[in-house]
User: What shape does this take?
Amino acid sequence: MKWLVYFIFIILYIMVTFFGLGPVLMADGSSQERFITFVVVVIIYIVITFFLLLWRKKVNKKK
Assistant: This one.
C-alpha cells in the first residue's frame, strides 16, 4: 500500500514539473506571466508536499 501512495506522489511531482515548469521555462509570454505561473507551480509543490508529509505522519502514527 505504501509503495502505491509514493508512486502516486512521484507521478504528481513529475506532472507538475512537466506541465508547470515547462511553460515557465519555454513560454513566449511576458515575464510577468511567467513569474505568476512560477508562483502557482511553487504553491502546488508546497500543497503536494504538505499532503505527503501529512500522510507519512498518519502512517507512522499507526505503527
Helices lie at 2-26, 31-62. DSSP finds two helices and no strands in the chain.
